[in-house]
Every structure is written in structure tokens, then in C-alpha cells.
């Protein structure tokens, strides 16, 4: 009542757009969501999205906030469910495929590195025992194997 007297009886609605959206709250939401988009699991270009939009009275509270990547956030904001579903599903497939292929590449790379190191070590060991012509043939064989590995 005192507030009404102070404003000569005028009621002022709360302007949710002027409320500050604290950085520590954003960080807390991203921490909770493990710094990944909760839709497609992307780990880059992360935004914090209001489940209930601010314009509809959605509060700046962590229970109303979720981490989205920029791509999912943009399409979800359109409120076009079909478009959002297709785009976010595509993002998820791309992210899960790139994570899988990255892991396979790392494993293959480590195995290949080990094989090349072993072969070079054996060549150096054999160098002391073989003549120059045989050594050149062995090196050509290794180069052919490397060419097959990297060009197939």
C-alpha cells in the first residue's frame, strides 16, 4: 500500500527485460548441464535459454534455464516445432558422429604411430647388418606401406 501511495496510485508492472541476467547464474546453468547443449551435446557457442520466455514472465532462475548451442537456440526461438526438431536432430547427429570419428582417429593415429616407430627402429637395427641395396629396398617397401595407409 505504501508503494501505491508513493506512486500516486499508479501500478507499475515489473519489466522482466530490465532485470539483469547475472553471469554467475549463466555459469551455474552451464556447469549443471556439463557445458554442453542439452539437445545436441555441442560444446561450442553455448547460450543460456529460458524455458518459459521472459516476455511471458519466465524468471531468471536456474530451473527455468537450460544450456543450448547457438544453432539449437536460434531454431528453438522460432517456435516452429518441425523446423526445430529437424535442425536439432541434425546437430545431434553431426556432433555424435564427429565425437565418434575423433575417438577412432585418435586410436588409429596412436596405433599407426606405434607401427611406424617400430618399423623405423627395425630398419635402423637392420641397417648395420645389410648392404646398401637391401636397405634401399626396405625403405621403398616402408614408403609404399605408408602411401597405402594414408591414401586409401
UniProtKB/TrEMBL annotation:
* Listed InterPro entries: HNH (IPR002711), HNH_nuc (IPR003615)
What are the HNH nuclease domain coordinates in residue numbering?
24-74
Q: What is this protein called?
A: HNH endonuclease
Out of the domains of life, which is the source? Answer: Bacteria
Transmembrane ranges, per UniProt, are none
The Swiss-Prot or TrEMBL record annotates one GO molecular function as: nucleic acid binding
Q: Which SMART domains does the record cross-reference, listed alphabetically?
A: HNHc
Q: Which UniProt keywords apply?
A: Endonuclease, Hydrolase, Nuclease
- Gene3D superfamilies assigned to the protein according to its UniProt record, in alphabetical order: 1.10.30.50
